Amino acid sequence: MTTVVTEIEGQSHPLNPLSAEEIAAVRDHLTAAGRLTETVRVTYLSLKEPAKNEMRRLREGGAAPARQARAVLLDITTGETWDVLVDLSHRVTVAETLVDPELVGQAPILLEEFDVLEEVLAADPDWAEALATRGLTPGQVRIAPLSAGVFDYEGETGRRLLRGLAFVQKQPGEYAWGNPMDQLVAFVDVIERCVVRIIDDGPTADPITDGNYERPELTGPLRTDLKPLQIIQPEGPSFTLDGNVLRWQNWDLHVGFDSREGLILGDIGFEDAGRRRPIIDRASIAEMVVPYGDPAPYRSWQNYFDTGEYLVGRDANSLELGCDCLGEITYLSPVVADAFGNPRVIDQAICIHEEDYGVLWKHTDDWAQHQASRRQRRLVVSFFTTVGNYDYGFYWYFYLDGTIQFEAKATRIVFTTRYPGPDYPYASQIAPGLAAPYHQHLFCARLDMAVDGARNTVHERDLKRLPRSEQNPHGNAFSRTREVICRESQGQRVADGTVGRVWEIVNSGTKNRVGEPVAYTLFPEGQPTLAAAADSSISRRAAFATKHLWVTRFAEGERYPCGDFVNQSIGTPGLPEFVRADRGVEDEDIVLWHSFGLTHFPRTEDWPIMPVDYTGFTLKPTGFFDQNPTLDVPPSERPDHAGEAGESACQC
Fold it and tell me: Where are the alpha helices (DSSP H) in 525-608?
């Protein structure tokens, strides 16, 4: 059974995303004000979230904050960019700023610019000549529209650019990724609609590999021995959804959505012994970058900020029951703005459901002659997005025992090129003659912490190995170290699996029943940070990924780790600039920026479509509760062989 909510409903909560009516109202206001004309596009339009002090006053019984919307507008004929703030209650412009792209970066990439890239190249004689040397015409190739980054190519300063790599597609419906054209790349100015540069080192024996992963010749006969797997909840789910406020098993949180970040979870708290205890004010994946490690001139510039440049929320998928989601599913259908400021509903983009997660706790006690077992369960809030050849699932999990977990699921068609040969150190051969360059998928979670209140401190905890000594005669002892992060200059940290490094977010003003401060602990995966050279363009622009953790004092406006305008930015403003003031972060309102991700050395098993790979992090209560908070979880009913609920409970 499926519950479908056709829009994110209810506009009473100040964190609710903009409704279709509100988006249309912003469009109408901008049009009337002369800002939205025939040549101007909306590259971003979303709720301007209320300031923290406004939300605090509201919780104390004050007035609701004003509803405001932020719009980033781009004139596609001049490149002029405006950042506009609109008051929705009074239909007035609160602020407007002319953006300097050379100083802060370009507006996000428009979907229509993908078509501009192909149209410009199709009409360019030099491009046609390059294709002719390969026996092709413009109508037989597709161009991957790729963000340009910032490099020292002559004549690029001040331009709004895309770079294009070509793939052969002679027939509609063909998967072109198995047919890359190598040693050829075009740089296009999408405002002037002209080719800035073509690098062409001549034709190669490019691979022609069938990439249609559903063609019977590739799949062979489909399996017939997978029996039906059904997940049913005869009495419905255990959670409730009141507008955007989600409640489940002592948890409550606000589910938001944004065209840039996708899911935004706010005001996360847990009811403990009749008292609601805050944990996180706001949680999102604020940025992700995909840097490639191939230095060839056709690919050395490849690094994509899928959040800040391409807008993962805008590209969210409509999910299907039985395919993307399985079980008792509740969907939300958020509304985003298209390039003309019109509201666009993404049907069933957010999936909410419960999952069994194995054993919660279990013990067999011979002394007491007693056995007991309980089942773990988790609440899942997720969405999937497609950016070019990449598909990513963003999954937030909430567990019965107070654990919070995030998991990114990466699946896709890997970006392909010709395989230069067995000694090439920067790519894997995934099919005969076909290569996929080494690359990374690096995410940044922005966690605005509020563990039992606004004043928190981060403690770095490491395992401490101890030598044999008078106090440790057998050499078996080990202990822990604690480093208190007091200032932002101390708050740039790297994980270390050899000592089990974790970071505790501590509220020293609240003690548990054994007299210790309450805390939540961030457990990092500790995979490699950004692999590029420290003085490279990508290291400057994606500085967040050079550390696993940054700790900052909360400041309104510090929302994105690479700044507001990522497309072709030089790397500022962003986290390095945020921490330059070296603010104190001990017993303060703090934000954790946690970087994590995958370093991908492609395999043959990743072609022609890659199975899901996983990355993420975990937040666990550490002295936050006075005891195991799941002692009240009831025993499960024991099903009979027919799958019906039995009379006896699982006590053993």
Answer: 537-541, 575-578
Annotation marks residue 419 as catalytic? no
Angstrom distance (rounded) from CA 618 to CA 133: 53
Residue 91 has pLDDT above 80, yes or no: yes
Mean pLDDT, rounded, for 122-129? 98
337, 22 in Cβ contact below 8 A?
no
Tell me, yes or no, if 306 is annotated catalytic.
Answer: yes
Residue with tokens 């909560």: 13
Question: What band does 217 get if pLDDT is binned at 50, 70 and 90?
Answer: confident
Instruction: List, as own/partner pairs, every contact residues 192-196 make where C-beta atoms lie below 8 angstroms and the sequence separation is at least 24, other chains included.
Output: 192/159, 193/116, 193/119, 193/120, 194/120, 195/120, 195/121, 195/124, 195/126, 195/127, 196/155, 196/156, 196/159, 196/161
Q: Which segments within 388-474 are labelled E, that is strand?
A: 390-399, 404-412, 417-418, 427-431, 434-437, 439-449, 457-465
CA-CA-CA-CA torsion for 85, 88, 92, 94, nearest 10 degrees?
-30
Q: 568 φ, ψ to 5°?
A: 60, 25
Q: Which of 206, 281, 306, 564 is catalytic?
A: 306
Residues across the chain: 652
What is the 3 state secondary structure string of 96-138?
A: EEECCHHHHCECCCCCHHHHHHHHHHHCCHHHHHHHHCCCCCH
Reported pTM = 0.96
The one catalytic residue among 175, 298, 390, 397: 390
Whole-angstrom distance, CA of residue 116 vs CA of residue 302: 20
Measure the CA–CA gap between 451 and 403, rounded to whole angstroms.
13
The pLDDT of residue 215: 86
pLDDT in tens, 542-559: 999 999 999 999 999 999
pLDDT of residue 646: 47
Tokens of 149: 């980054």
**For residues 449 and 445, what is the distance between their CA atoms, to the nearest angstrom?**
12
Interatomic CA distance for residues 332 and 380, integer angstroms: 13
SS3 270: strand
Q: Which token pair is 324?
A: 């993307």
Confidence category of residue 170, pLDDT binned at 50, 70, 90: confident
Residue 31 CA to residue 98 CA, distance in Å, equals 17
> Which residue shows structure tokens 């039906």?
228
Q: What is the dihedral of CA 129, 186, 296, 166, to 10 degrees?
A: -70
Instruction: Dig out the tokens for 208 from the structure.
Output: 């022609």
